[in-house]
Amino acid sequence: MARGAIRLRLALLVMMAVLASATVVVASGGQVAAFPTQPPPDTPAVVRNGVWYLRNCDTSGVADTTFAYGNPGDIPVVGVWNANPADPFQSDGVGVVRNGIWYLRSSLTTGVAETTLSYGNPGDIPIVGNWTGTATGIGVVRNGVWYLRNSLTSGVADTVISFGNAGDIPIVGNWTGNPTHQDAVGVVRNGIWYLRNTLTSGVADTTFGYGQAGDTPLTGYWPFSSTSAIPSGIGVAHRGDWYLNSGPNAGAALPAFTYGDPGDRALTGKWGNIFGLC
To answer: What is the distance between the alpha carbons of residues 141 and 51, in angstroms, rounded to a whole number?
Structure first.
């Protein structure tokens, strides 16, 4: 066989191996990166007087994206509004909840709501999660009762459960790393985390301490992982200081960083940095 044909055959074999491992080499921002086969990390955002400041890395620094959306006093929410959240490479959209009305926008830009719906009452705590493993759902928590709806529409709850007490801070995450990315519930009370692995009433499956009273609890996927079955990580934001832990436990924090100001609303999401280049 001619040398040229041998080289072509070897090149084809290498290409097939690359494709089989689901890793395609691309160039991004002048850097060569491998297309990730696992979910990219969630990264921080703060909301201040209706202005959103998004950062693409879990590090100290300035915002990569800034835009106005909502009013001071609105409750910010984050989720995949127009796609399948079971695809871990989807970017999140933003939203605000005001007196039981939800205003959702998929584009990370200033503008009007793309979806508006009514769900819950003034004073409820809004939450977002993947309740079915197939689509983004919404919910509200009222005095320890969770009212979950499977679609981004007005209507009644599809699931109602009791978990936690009035005054607890509700959180949502995939605590067991199930591959469908179906979320479950939890509450944080004075720095103690109570997590339940199913969307049913009952007692906590996991309890641990992380952070302190007054911190803002956070959940998300912080690091890349060698497996698709990765549980949600946890974290807290305290007056602009962020402390993240890669699993739902009381382990040591990943490198801490500073982002935002005291008084900002801290939250996390996937803002389009699928390669995790920082």
So the answer is: 25
Cβ neighbours of residue 94 closer than 8 Å, sequence gap 6 or more: 52, 69, 76, 77, 78, 104, 105, 108, 269
> Which residues, 6 or more positions from 13, have their beta carbon under 8 angstroms from its beta carbon?
none
Between these two residues, 224 and 28, which has the higher pLDDT value? 224
Strand partners, 141: 125, 146
Q: Supply the CATH number for residue 53's domain.
A: 2.115.10
Cβ atoms 230, 245 nearer than 8 A: no
Q: Give the residue numbers spanning the domain of 1.
A: 1-37
- 168 touches 144 (CB < 8 A): yes
DSSP SS3 for 8: helix
Per-residue model confidence as pLDDT tens digits over 129-149: 999 988 899 999 999 999 999
Tokens 């605590």 correspond to what residue? 175
DSSP letter (8 states) at residue 144: T
